[in-house]
Please model this.
Amino acid sequence: MVTFDEFRALALALPEAAQEPTWGIETLRVRGRVFAMGAPEGGSVTVKASREDQAELLAAEPEVFSFAPYVGRHGWVSVRLDLVDPEELDDLVTEAWRRTAPKRLVREFDTRNSG
Model:
């Protein structure tokens, strides 16, 4: 089980990540662009993904992952915090950040984290 606070900490540990309340939920952003979101009192969070990754996740673990309301058609995935593997969530949040962050920032991140 992962708590919302743990999810938020994963996201905020990424370069230039910031939290901003929007639409009555917490959005996690990099340079103003949303890559993840959720509500502290909710049981799930939503992360940005490709449509291909979304299809794979939903097919592999439909009890954990679902089509995100409103933004699912763009690849976003809802993730149940009580069932997701913490390492998998870390990977998903990092990948969501990578899809959203400017390329130069991603290259700098990769350089710092290689080797």
